[in-house]
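Hi there, hope your week has been kind to you so far. Do you reckon you could talk me through the fold, stretch by stretch? Thanks so much in advance, here it is.
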Amino acid sequence: MKSFISIIAVVILIVGFSACERISQITQPTTPEIEESRGEVSIGVVLPLTGSLAATGQLMQQGLEFARGEINETQPSSTLKFIIEDDIGTPEGAVAAFNKLIHEDGVPVILGPATSSATKAAFPIAEENQVVAISPTSAARGLSEIGDFVFRVLLSTNIVALKGVETTHAKLGYQRVATLYDETDLFSTDRDTALREAFAAINVQVLVTEVFESGDTNFSEQLTRIKALEPDAIFVSALPPEKPGILVQAHELGISAPIIVSSLTDVEVEAAGAAAEGAITFIGWLPTDDTPGNQAFVENYNATYGMEPDAFATSSYAVVYILAEAIKNAEGTDSISIRDALANIMDFDTVFGKFSFNADGDAVYDQKTLIVKDGILQPFE
């Protein structure tokens, strides 16, 4: 009987140890070997590849594809696949693209849209369906606050305006300004509001606010009225297609006041030619920045596409690396795991420098103020 009891005790102990081991396997974090073998992850991409913003969308696509190629080459066991949809640069197009990618393709993550207007329309769809969405280039305030599944890589307008006005006012000393903005675009209207809030905080007088619409090509009436008031500086909030034309027409009218333009890029400077000289902008990146990987990125991008990356291509490049870091750190490749990993991105090395997301899902990194000198964007010093 004693021998029988001893045998039973040994069996119980063996079974107990086996059960404990199984529970341990279930509750322990995924091993590095499993984490590194994620396979192919399908990522939705929504860009304006046709319509008035097609040129910008194509540059963004280049930045995205360039980053994806680098990541897939260096991390072959966890590759990214893009499913790309054209939103035609409209909110309606973005909504249709998000619905297609979510309900037909079943992607866990969408990169896009590009504009704040499209982002405002599409982000609620991602949030409702618990799909992660990361806009590389939208900047109007409040968009990341739509929900827990939505994030943005550009700094929001209120942060950029406050810091930019502080920097330029300290050097230029303007007291009387004029603003000009696109009243049909969410980013432009929100940026103009943020600028006027920043002016009020330091008692700078806004002499006049002029408006135009996306697609306009003649700004002479607005600029003529602004010129007559002789402002110390002119602040322009616009999307890429309109910026060169505004600079050219201001130059033709002989406007000498400094013109401070939203997110001016090398492409737009080149399009405006001599009229861009002296224009100032607030932005988060320069090709010459000594940030992690930036010089190699600029050199390799130039070798591939025969041009330097602009700010839109660079934001798109950065967002893929930020997403890849989240996927690497996530417990799985489902949208909830990726969302949680994105929310924990902190001081991640990017071409922008140290990058983090705040509690709302908005970007945190250092911004810069630039000026066009000798046809090139350079630090405003």
About this structure: Residues 1-36 have pLDDT under 50 and may be disordered. DSSP finds 13 helices and 15 strands in the chain.
